[in-house]
Specification:
Blueprint (H helix, E strand, L loop, with lengths): L2 H10 L7 H16 L5 H7 L3 H8 L7 H11 L4 H11 L4 H12 E8 L10 H8 L8 H14 L11 E7 H5 L5 H14 L5 E6 L13 E6 L4 E7 L2 E5 L2 H17 L3 H14 L1
Parallel strand pairs: 1-2, 2-3
Antiparallel strand pairs: 1-4, 4-5, 5-6
Helix pairs in contact: 2-6, 5-6, 8-9, 11-13
Pfam families: DUF5753 (PF19054), HTH_31 (PF13560)
Protein name: Helix-turn-helix domain-containing protein
GO molecular function: DNA binding
């Protein structure tokens, strides 16, 4: 599921590289609009979009935001059909190789991760995410950058949803706290955001200090997911290549490894102090 597959999905969807979910959503908007006997100007005025933006959504060239969907549901009397597609529209903004993982995350009641190089996506500020995505090579177009930023921020709703309410644990290498992604101001705000996130009762953030010479996570980053049905998955990503493991024996070993990793990292309180010091030094 690497970058070659990413390109193949874009070329093979028959929409000039546009995600199928956007096209399907746009066709529904047009169907409901025409059924109501409205021009594009009517929903544009009601929703606060320009006529050109409404046309772009209908043609699948632009993803609809949640605010658009809620207004369109009301104006076009869509009966929940557009709302039902919003999750697919948001997910389609993610890189193709990551979309299956995003679907698994939606069903997870626990998500544990270990990150070595950068702040985890679920904890990133908008400015940090944008700066990070802009480092992609070959360079991405501005529109694609903004789509991926929007998708990353949309994923963060996992932290605040209530059905199902999930438990999150993050182990972050100290090096990620010192890497000045986006510059000093962006990084200072990012570290402050980490401290805000850790105040949520279902979120635990631990720092793995560089002084810990050896630990159980040196083989690389990982994400551990568990669903309400107690199905467990391990996600391993490197250089845009994602592997999802579901074998019970293999997954069990990763769970043991992660338990050891958490015991080797700083505890939550010491980690918060560590992040505060890093912010003060930034």
């Amino acid at each position: 599921m690497g970058r070659n597959n990413d390109r193949a999905k874009a070329v093979g969807n028959g929409n000039g590289g546009r995600p199928g979910a956007w096209s399907a959503y746009g066709k529904l908007v047009r169907l409901f609009r025409e059924r109501a006997g409205l021009t594009q100007q009517s929903p544009a005025d009601a929703i606060g979009y320009s006529v050109e933006q409404v046309a772009s959504v209908e043609q699948g060239r632009q993803p609809a935001k949640a605010t658009f969907t809620e207004a369109a549901e009301r104006v076009l009397a869509a009966g929940g059909a557009l709302r039902a597609l919003q999750e697919d529209v948001d997910r389609a903004q993610l890189p193709a190789f990551f979309q299956d993982v995003a679907a698994l995350e939606q069903d997870a009641v626990s998500r544990f991760s270990y990150d070595q190089l950068v702040i985890p996506g679920l904890l990133q500020t908008e400015a940090y995410a944008r700066a990070l995505i802009r480092t992609h090579f070959p360079p991405l177009g501005d529109e694609v950058v903004e789509q991926r930023v929007a998708a990353r921020l949309a994923r963060q709703s996992l932290l605040t949803r209530t059905a199902p309410c999930a438990v999150f644990a993050f182990v972050i290498e100290e090096a990620a706290l010192h890497r000045m992604v986006g510059g000093t101001q962006v990084m200072r705000a990012q570290l402050a955001h980490l401290l805000e996130c850790r105040r949520m009762r279902h979120v635990d953030i631990q720092v793995m200090p560089s002084s810990r010479a050896a630990h159980s996570g040196l083989n690389g980053p990982m994400v551990l997911l568990e669903t309400a049905e107690r199905r467990r998955f391990v996600v391993i990503e490197s250089q845009g290549v994602v592997s999802v493991r579901s074998d019970c024996h293999e997954v069990g070993e990763f769970w043991l490894q992660y338990g050891m990793l958490r015991s080797q990292a700083l505890n939550a309180e010491d980690s918060a102090d560590f992040i505060e010091r890093a912010a003060g030094e930034t």
